[in-house]
Amino acid sequence: MKLTWSDVTPKSSWLNRRSFLAAGAALAASPALGLTGKPSGFSTDAEPNSLKDITNYNNFYEFGTGKEDPARYASALTTDPWSVEIGGLVERPGSYGLEDIAPDNELEERIYRLRCVEAWSMVIPWIGVPLASILNRVGVQPSAKYVAFETLVRPEEMRGQKRPILDWPYREGLRLDEAMHPLTILATGLYSDPLPNQNGAPLRLVVPWKYGFKSIKSIVRITLTDSEPFATWNALQPREYGFYANVNPQVDHPRWSQATERKIGGGLFGGRQETLMFNGYADQVASLYEGMDLSRQF
Ligand SMILES: Nc1nc2c(c(=O)[nH]1)N[C@H]1C(S)=C(S)[C@@H](COP(=O)(O)O)O[C@H]1N2
Ligand SMILES: [Mo]
């Protein structure tokens, strides 16, 4: 039953970057997957951040608002047993275990850029499954248009939830086509190990072309709906955080520029880089937003 993570993701797949990138190129070029993008369609060839960076500089307000709070306090969270209620406009609603959602034999490695709305970024080698695979398994009803997600509420273990920092539970949502896009994954691991608690164990969303706050952690509920779901940051400050939250260097946050970002671990002077449209995933996702005014629907 326990995952053999070294089987899932042999260390060589990220240490031996040459052969990994070649494999990634073959995958991305496969017409069966519906991708027409560049060789790095699924995984970026940018240098992944160290495990130390990825696990010590986090946003996870359930454990406090400081970047180092999750690393200090998230170990208090019990992640086993865990189940996810999948409901709303689906054919087979119910309580699903992690093994149903992300079976060992379906896990994939995806090296993705993560761009926080606060203008910092990382590159993270996730392990997970396409969200589409579980949505297809539960059966999406034709009237469904959106997918809503909720994080666990357990103040005894999530010390930040003892204070009204946010309107708990943390909630997020995607349009159905965004949710079904092959880049959208549910992650259960990173590097060759199960997801550390501070990164959203045991199951978190990863939507690499959107600001990090869309990638909701420690998910306990997934609901298919016909109207736009409540989204925590959007509801808190709609002028600053849109529902779409697509990474866009041309649409500044009211209080800071989004044109550049600081790559964590890039050194005191070396870490500044240009922010890319859709965080570098424009070839794959721009068509989802054809005809939309992205400066208004940001
Ligand atoms: N439940 C929950 N999910 C969350 C957050 C949070 O505070 N609570 N923070 C978000 C933000 S702002 C970012 S940038 C990413 C950070 O993910 P990481 O810590 O794994 O890098 O998680 C997102 N998911
Ligand atoms: Mo963020």
Automatic annotation (TrEMBL):
NCBIfam families: PRK05363.1. It is an enzyme of class 1 (oxidoreductase). InterPro entries: MsrP, OxRdtase_Mopterin-bd_dom, OxRdtase_Mopterin-bd_sf, TAT_signal. Belongs to the MsrP family. Its cofactor is Mo-molybdopterin. One of its GO terms (molecular function) is oxidoreductase activity, acting on a sulfur group of donors, quinone or similar compound as acceptor. Residues 78-233 form the Oxidoreductase molybdopterin-binding domain. This is Protein-methionine-sulfoxide reductase catalytic subunit MsrP. PROSITE patterns: TAT. PANTHER family: PROTEIN-METHIONINE-SULFOXIDE REDUCTASE (PTHR43032), PROTEIN-METHIONINE-SULFOXIDE REDUCTASE CATALYTIC SUBUNIT MSRP (PTHR43032:SF3).
